[in-house]
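Researcher: Here's my situation. A collaborator sent me these components and asked whether they could plausibly form a single complex. I don't have experimental data yet, so a predicted model of the whole assembly would be a useful starting point for our discussion.
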Amino acid sequence: MFEAIAFYTFSAITIVMFTITVMSKNALYSMSALAAGMIIISGFFFLLDADFLGVVQIIVYTGAVMALYAFGMMFFDTTREVKESIRAPKLVFLLSGMSALLLVIALVAPIVSDHIEPLYPVVEGVENPQAVGIVLFTKYLVPFEVAAVMLLVAMISGIILAGKKMDKSLTLKTDGEDEFQNGGSK
Amino acid sequence: MITLSHYLILTAILFCIGLVGVYRRKNLLLLLFSTEILLNAVNVGFAAISKFYADLSGQMFAFFIVAVAASEVAVGLGLFIVWYKRRGTLDVDSMQSMHG
């Protein structure tokens, strides 16, 4: 009963939030709605007994990714309304509808065949984070390490791409600052 | 009683919202937001399959998707900052240097 109430409440909030994210013209509203939706998504993970995944969702998505977006948006002019010229609105909805149909077929297909057997069954008598750790560090150790290397590469590339000419301000430039920059850097 | 179908239908709805965003957004930053929605929708689906088939593989894939999403955001934002410094706009239509 409580599961059903929680599920429907969370679904309604998530759908509304993500719709705001997709439809809003203000980038700041869009980002806030996305962050709220991410938090609510973690509620689904707690409902699904995936405690560790829920905590990771809050920490990584809402804590790291959305904070990164928030800091990244300081570089862009986000106070203006986003101007978007959509040339063929009918085509957009046609394409979305066809993708949705394909998606439904793709999702229904394995349920119809009904031959799914668990590859790594949930360990009995063990809490979810422990079970996740057992599988992650035995069966999925190599992908885990590759993911670590990938994150390192992404971090270095992010620093190098964003860090060039960091000493020059894009928006604020007063005379005093200019002189200071010319005097300060070489 | 909430079954697997409920979760899969929710996943499909969220994925379609993200798809609409990918189709209609012209601003690069907001396009990246839409891809985040896509990834999150799929994560919910994986977690649901993981629960209803008592299999931990789904959660594993969800973890790797989270890792991919984090690195995607880092690289993507770095590229956007470089682009914004050059052109002063994040509109997709401004990326027409080839005039094909």
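Model: Some features of this prediction you could bring to your collaborator: Chain A touches chain B through 80 residues (CB under 8 Å). Confidence is low (pLDDT under 50) at residues 177-186 of chain A.
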